[in-house]
Design a protein that fits this description.
Layout: E1 8-17, E2 20-30, E3 35-39, H1 46-53, E4 61-66, H2 77-80, E5 81-84, H3 96-107, H4 112-120, H5 136-148, E6 154-158, H6 166-182, E7 186-191, H7 194-197, E8 203-208, E9 211-217, H8 218-223, E10 227-233, H9 236-245, E11 251-253, E12 259-262, H10 266-275, E13 280-287, H11 290-298, H12 337-340
Parallel strand pairs: 3-7, 3-8, 5-6, 6-7
Antiparallel strand pairs: 1-2, 1-4, 8-9, 10-12, 10-13, 11-12
The protein binds adenosine-5'-triphosphate and magnesium ion.
Biased composition (Low complexity): 325-349
GO molecular function: ATP binding
InterPro entries: AAA+_ATPase, ABC_transporter-like_ATP-bd, ABC_transporter-like_CS, P-loop_NTPase
Length: 349
């Protein structure tokens, strides 16, 4: 039997498809009571991880469990975990209600549950319409309704915001938040766009190239944002030295010949430069937003990268220049909720 905890544990999970390391030694824990975002760029290994969690792909090594058990040992899994994965189709000629009744019968819940879940996802008035004529957003809602049929303790949704309009995203946010918080359920949602799920999630697991890059509360990531000053000096190395000699930490040269300084004011930097006799041609205060942080953490998924950004970074090398110190980055794998807090620290190997 499963332990009824509502906990998802991914431990040292890896999947290799031929020469492709889709997921490499991934570890994280998701607890009930909050919504966790599972984020990474296209091809990062999100869907593969979720498929392993749901027993649809066999891991090369490591484990993924729900309520302490692999999916195959959950007994009646639809009562424990509901899921929506990419590219799930519907019979186009079937009405929404009939689609749900087919699934309800398969998992042993009464027909009336079909109408209940249609009401929950706001599709009550479309119950008799054929799924083939649904918009993308309506199909997302119908897929969610299907996942909810068994009243599961754990919800796993792959890119659930795809196709939703702003109103739909707001609705999904309110729905998932109350599902997780008020009913103490576990919700894991993947996305390749942080800003699409930022309003939705409390915890975040960020992966890139199959490896964990950040793992912890979103609030912590948000707090770790700090402004930095980008200085354009006549002599960047002389300015770096002058700042360091004056006890300024968080100084790093940028690839375009400027110097990024975190945690100091424009005045402080200007005074030090003036005293050291270094000409400064410009200073710019910059505030990192979450999206940029996400980009920095996941850069290098593809060689080349975006114009104006640092080049490919194959391995995790700590935070980007001028951005937060390493204590905000968590090293896995935690083996339980208590241990989770102790893992703030270095990079994931
Ligand atoms: N069945 C498969 N056979 C071979 N390679 C696969 C298979 N499934 C996934 N991959 C590869 O594994 C890597 C991770 O793919 P995955 O679909 O898990 O990424 P993702 O993070 O979900 O991306 P997206 O944001 O585009 O949905 C990719 O390089 C992909 O090509
Ligand atoms: Mg995917």
């Amino acid at each position: 039997m499963h332990d009824g905890s509502g906990r998802i544990v991914v431990q040292n999970l890896s999947k290799q498809f031929g020469a492709v390391n889709a997921v490499q030694n991934l570890s994280f824990t998701v607890e009930p009571g909050s919504v966790t975002g599972f984020l990474g760029p296209n091809g990062a290994g999100k869907t593969t991880t979720l498929r392993m969690l749901l027993g649809l792909v066999t891991p090369t090594s490591g484990m993924a469990t729900i309520n302490g058990r692999p999916h195959s040992q959950l007994g009646n899994p639809a009562r424990v975990v509901g899921s929506v994965l990419e590219n799930e189709g519907f019979h186009p000629g079937r009405t929404a209600r009939n689609h749900l009744r087919v699934y309800a019968a398969a998992i042993g819940v009464p027909d009336r549950r079909a109408d209940e879940v249609l009401g929950l996802v706001g599709l009550g008035s479309a119950a008799d319409r054929k799924a083939g004529g649904f918009s993308l957003g309506m199909r997302q809602r119908l897929a969610l309704a299907t996942a909810l049929l068994g009243d599961p303790q754990v919800l796993v949704l792959d890119e659930p915001t795809n196709g939703l309009d702003p109103e739909g995203i707001l609705w999904l946010r309110n729905f998932l938040r109350s599902y997780a918080r008020e009913q103490r359920r576990t919700v894991l949602v993947s996305s390749h766009l942080l800003n699409e799920v930022e309003q939705l999630i409390d915890q975040v697991v960020i992966i890139s190239q199959g490896v964990t890059r950040y793992y912890g509360p979103l609030e912590q990531l948000r707090k770790s944002q700090q402004s930095r000053v980008l200085v354009q000096p006549a002599d960047p190395s002389a300015l770096v030295k002058a700042l360091q000699d004056n006890g300024i930490t968080g100084v790093s040269p940028t690839p375009d010949g400027r110097v990024a300084v975190a945690g100091s004011s424009v005045q402080q930097i200007g005074d030090i430069a003036a005293k050291a006799g270094i000409a400064v041609y410009g200073m710019q205060e910059e505030h990192a937003d979450l999206e940029r942080m996400f980009f920095q953490l996941t850069q290098g998924q593809y060689t080349g990268g975006a114009p104006g950004y640092p080049p490919h970074q194959a391995q995790y090398q700590g935070p980007p220049p001028g951005y937060p110190p390493q204590q905000h980055y968590q090293q896995g794998p935690p083996s339980g909720p208590q241990q989770q807090q102790q893992y703030w620290g270095g990079p994931q190997q």
